[in-house]
Amino acid sequence: MAEGNNILLDVRGLKKHFPIEEGAIFKRVVGHVRAVDGIDFEIRKGETMGLVGESGCGKSTTARAIAQLYKPTAGEINFEGRDLCCLKRQELLRARMDLQMIFQDPYASLNPRMTIGSAIAEPMEIYARRGLLKITRQEIRKRVEDLLERVGLSRYFVNRFPHEFSGGQKQRIGIARALALNPKLILADEPVSALDVSIQSQILNLLRDLQEEFGLTYLFIAHDLAVIHHISNRVAVMYLGVIVEIAESAVLYEEPLHPYTRALLSAVPIPDPAVERARQRIILEGDVPSPDRERHGCYFYDRCSQRMEVCKINIPRLTEVKPNHRVACYLHHSP
Ligand SMILES: Nc1ncnc2c1ncn2[C@@H]1O[C@H](COP(=O)(O)OP(=O)(O)O)[C@@H](O)[C@H]1O
Ligand SMILES: [Mg+2]
User: Fold this and answer.
1) Is any atom of ligand 1 closer than 6 Å to the C-beta of 55?
2) What predicted TM-score, i.e. pTM, was given to this entire model?
3) Ligand 1 atom with the shortest distance to the CA of 57
4) Closest ligand by atom to 66 CA
């Protein structure tokens, strides 16, 4: 395990439950969607932590809770050693500068009526108005131009509107906006999922170059293990609001332990036909169940090909079974 001072973000027991309401006029809460149901993980300075899982597993909710776009139901989000949930308003605003998000759909995250120059300048203007950033109008303009060029666009694009750009270019604009405040941690929520395969690698390369140049730390979300494998140092696999396995990316890819990870991996095509033949294909049947009921056993029980009696009664906890390799599965540790 890394030394404490290497850890930039330490998430403990994070939960985010959304109330389910019923009734047209007098709304009453009839249940909760347990989108994130108690997760623990840490991200070390300068690394890329991958977060993977099928759609609906709670990946976006995790990122949004970390970015303080959602108030967590429970848990701690320790950023540089301070719990964000306990900060006073001004301190929180200051901390928010250091964590920025990149979204899957760059078009939806850009205001169609705002020039891209204004979109990139906006975070700086907001923070300047709040007195948290000392910067002049001219400096903002210069920085917008520099950012445009740094993400591979032209400074002459400042007065254009989002619809004039392709999907890949829009994602570059989203990245420039996320970089505007010089963040330390970038929460990238499926940043290439909406892009053509040919464009995906360009954006991944850009993100990697920016990481090196600015010493950025990433939480990188994808539903596709093929994408996450190359860019991540470590990967956390999420299922129904919980983390079921965390390991170094290469280890997870070569020796996955959790049946869910194995199933996700068996869906990834391997270029080498010999390896492809040797690897047993596991087809994941059914969809992710709705996360609105209280659970007593393993969350993956219904879809698991290796389920045992004990898995129905006890919830397996994420347990370190090898150095730096944690898994929540009774095939690998005792209850
Ligand atoms: N604002 C919300 N209100 C109610 N339910 C939500 C909300 N956001 C997400 N959910 C539910 O929480 C679960 C996890 O969603 P999400 O975090 O978007 O998953 P992922 O990003 O892995 O696809 C899903 O069942 C989703 O329907
Ligand atoms: Mg999502």
Assistant:
1) yes
2) 0.92
3) 22
4) 1
Question: Which pLDDT score is estimated for 276?
Answer: 53
pLDDT at 284: 72
Mean pLDDT by 10 residues, the chain (335 residues): 74 95 86 94 97 94 96 96 93 95 86 95 96 96 98 97 94 97 97 92 96 97 87 96 96 94 80 55 69 82 92 95 97 94
User: Is 2 buried (19+), middle (13-18) or exposed (0-12) by CB count in 10 A?
Assistant: exposed
Pocket lining: 237 vs ligand 1, CB cutoff 6 Å: no
At residue 275, the pLDDT reads 53
For 318, the token pair is: 């994420």
Q: Is 60 in the pocket of ligand 1 (CB under 6 A)?
A: yes
Q: Residue with the nearest Cα to atom 5 of ligand 1? A: 18
**Candidates 1.10.3720.10, 3.40.50.300, 3.30.470.30, 3.40.50.1820; CATH matching 4-98+183-327:** 3.40.50.300
Looking at residue 293, its pLDDT comes to 72
Q: Is the CB of 18 under 6 A from ligand 1?
A: yes
- Ligand 1 contact, 291 CB (< 6 A): yes
Note residues around ion ligand 2 (Cβ under 5 angstroms): 60
Mutate to test the pocket of ligand 1, among 33, 242, 290 (most ligand atoms within 8 A of CB): 33
Ligand 1 within 6 A of CB of 33? yes
In ligand 1, which atom is closest to the CA atom of 223? Answer: 22
